[in-house]
Amino acid sequence: MNGREISNPLDLKQIQVTDAFWHREQELVRTQVLPYQWDALNDRVEGAAPSYCMRNFKVAGRMMREKRDKGAAYVAPSYTFRGFEALPEDPANPDEDKFYGFVFQDTDFSKWIEAVGYSLLQHPDPELEKTADEAIDIVCAAQLENGYLDTYYIINGMDRAFTNLRDHHELYCLGHLVEGAVAYYQATGKDKLLRAAERFADYCCQVFGPEPGQCKGYPGHEIAEMALVRLFEEDNQERYLNLAKFFLDRRGTEPFYFEQEEQERAAHDGQPYKKTTNNAYHQAHLPVREQSEAVGHAVRAMYLYSGMADVARLCGDEAMEAACDRLWDNVTREKMYVTGGVGATHMGEAFSFNYDLPNDTAYSETCAAIGLVFWARRMLQLKPRGKYGDVMELALYNTVLAGMALDGKSFFYVNPLDVAPEACHKDGRKGHVKTVRQKWFGCACCPPNIARLVSSVAAYAYTESADTLWFHLYMGSVLTKEVWAGDDSSREKKTLDIKVESQLPWEGKVKVLLRGDRTPCKLAFRVPGWSGGMKVSYRCCGRAGEAAVTGEGLAMGTDFADQTDRAGEQTALSQAAVSYRDGYLYIDGVWQDGDEVDLEMEMPVRILEADPRVREDMGKVAIARGPIVYCLEERDNGKDLHLCRVDLQTLRPSDIRTETTKELGHPMTVLQVPGKRLLPEESGELYRQARPAREEDVTLRMVPYYAWNNRGEGEMSVWVRR
Amino acid sequence: MNGREISNPLDLKQIQVTDAFWHREQELVRTQVLPYQWDALNDRVEGAAPSYCMRNFKVAGRMMREKRDKGAAYVAPSYTFRGFEALPEDPANPDEDKFYGFVFQDTDFSKWIEAVGYSLLQHPDPELEKTADEAIDIVCAAQLENGYLDTYYIINGMDRAFTNLRDHHELYCLGHLVEGAVAYYQATGKDKLLRAAERFADYCCQVFGPEPGQCKGYPGHEIAEMALVRLFEEDNQERYLNLAKFFLDRRGTEPFYFEQEEQERAAHDGQPYKKTTNNAYHQAHLPVREQSEAVGHAVRAMYLYSGMADVARLCGDEAMEAACDRLWDNVTREKMYVTGGVGATHMGEAFSFNYDLPNDTAYSETCAAIGLVFWARRMLQLKPRGKYGDVMELALYNTVLAGMALDGKSFFYVNPLDVAPEACHKDGRKGHVKTVRQKWFGCACCPPNIARLVSSVAAYAYTESADTLWFHLYMGSVLTKEVWAGDDSSREKKTLDIKVESQLPWEGKVKVLLRGDRTPCKLAFRVPGWSGGMKVSYRCCGRAGEAAVTGEGLAMGTDFADQTDRAGEQTALSQAAVSYRDGYLYIDGVWQDGDEVDLEMEMPVRILEADPRVREDMGKVAIARGPIVYCLEERDNGKDLHLCRVDLQTLRPSDIRTETTKELGHPMTVLQVPGKRLLPEESGELYRQARPAREEDVTLRMVPYYAWNNRGEGEMSVWVRR
Question: Considering the entire predicted model, what is its pTM?
Answer without folding.
Answer: 0.92
